[in-house]
Amino acid sequence: MSAAPTPSCHESGAVATAGPDAAVVALAGTPNVGKSSLFNTVTGARRTVGNWPGTTVEVGRGAWDLGGDPARRVTLVDLPGAYSLDAMSPDEEVTRGVVLAQGEEAPSAVVVVTSAAHLARGLYLVAQLRERTIPVVVALTMLDVAQRRGLDTDAAVLADELGCPVVALDPRRRRGGGQLAAAVQAALVRGPLEPRHTPPTSESEPAGDELALADERFSWIARAVERAQRHAGGARRTFSDRVDRWATAPVVGPLLFLAVMWAVFQVTTVVAAPLQDALDSFFAGPVADGADRLLAWVGLGESPVRGFVVDGLIAGVGMLLTFVPLMALMFLLLAVLEDSGYMARAAVVTDRLMGRLGLPGRAFLPLVVGFGCNVPAIAATRILSQARHRLLTALLVPFTSCTARLTVYVLLATTFFPEHAGSVVFAMYLLSIVLVVLVGLLLRGVLWRALGAEPLVLDLPPYQRPTARLSLAVTWLRLKGFLRTASGIIVATVVIVWFLQSVPAPGAAGTFGAVPVEDSVYAAIARSIAPVLAPAGFGEWQTVSALIVGFIAKEAVISSWAQTYALAEPSSEREPGVLGQQLLETFTASSGGHAGVAVLAFMVFLLAYTPCVATLAAQRREIGLRWTAAGVAMQLAVAYVLAVAVFQVGRLLW
After folding, report:
1. What's the burial of 510, exposed, middle or buried (CB within 10 Å: 0-12/13-18/19+)?
2. Same domain, yes or no, for 110 and 256?
3. Does the N terminus or the C terminus of the chain have fewer Cβ atoms within 10 A?
4. What is the CA 614 to chain-centroid distance, rounded?
5. How many domains does the chain have?
6. Do the domain assignments include residue 366?
7. pLDDT digit string (tens) for 329-371?
């Protein structure tokens, strides 16, 4: 139930390269060993990282300077986590395809990132690569974690045992990058190696031969670990073990997770409120007044341009920007939780619940990503091995409440429930989880009764003290991604909404740019749909039009309201809280005096109805047009039924 450790709102990973003639170095390793942190450190890229498995689900590329000489720049390819070259899921297939590519597509070397805390687990990939000719360099991370567990690792001895360079480093604190660059450069100069023996060439390889080869690999790994790593003081119970006794417990674990997330939303709404009010006053006052004076000075004070600039761009974009403090604080708190290692425990505490849906515990990882942004969450379903698991999860992801919806929740909650805003917002996220469960049970019962679950196989990262640099970097990455995407969408939406509000509806009086908004084409379109939503308590055209705009992007809901109400009273003074007051009047009118219940019904509808167009595009790419269309129909039906039920029952009780 968190924002995910993924690029915010549709932002893709790094795509820079060192040029078409540069060598390509692949960055591989098991999940959650610091690959993406290392990638960001050596390339200067800003790829999202997280102290939990499944962070990387797509290939990232960046230029890596190995020594100051332009000729020594290489293209580093950050690959999804994989335990071996025997692919069990689409993301592992991507890793296998890149590492084992032939001809011009083949990498010149592979850097295998391995955790010293789980040394044997990470060396199986090295064992497979030593059967090839490609040069390998091992980057050894998490030595501090291993030491806390009583494990001392000798990198030099390990290098002798593996027959390849081993470099100890700490990507989170940017230590060891220079030594790794030198080792990679030496490996590139040395060139292809002689394979230890011939690897399997096809899936038709006799089972006995494959088992014998696997046994040899494990024996080689055990021998290397035994000689390179020793227990300094015997095994001892770690801090992570002690905390996980409660954090992953069947009952206490989920309750603790819900309590943590409630605290996040409570702190966010309370702390950000004064900053939001200040920004609202700034845009509604000095910025709008300054624009009015400037337009009047150039002779455009009474022209349609004034409506577009002041009532469109400033009202719409300015209203969205008032939520920047809230988004920044939310992203920061979640980044701290992720960097600490706590968020990975969510998959463990929900494993039993996922099993009831016929999904493996790993399916919770894409769903958690969805609370940040649905688009990368759809892509994250590639970590699941079975096609039906990926399909079911992709259909459930849009029911996770992304951060774009959060801005609308906060506006409505602070307007209608000011004393309980944090709890109301938290309730929406809790309802989101309930919807995922109920819809998942329904889909499984109707479509996939025989859908079997898989046991949870997941590396829990150790708890660690969050670093300010990494937490702030992740926060800035997500906030920048949100603003970059939202700004483009909002400006485009503002233009479209302004145009439709400037055109008189058929039969209405007025000319372009000089028509009351209630007589515009924009209002006429919304009025034609409004009766359908009247049973849910929000059948006014101003509310319906915001939902139509929200189909493009949920961030645009607030800007469309800001435009609509600014244009509705073009001569009124702008003052803090005017939008909230106008929303209160609208919901009161549409609900027959039951504004609070109608707002709750609206928020439920916003949570469950059709996702943004970017999410639909991602769904079509992953599960096809037919299933995407079926998902849209399902979500609209669920949203409508729930919203009507909330209002009709709520108005009898409230």
Report:
1. middle
2. no
3. C
4. 13
5. 2
6. yes
7. 877 887 888 778 777 777 677 766 777 777 776 777 788 778 8
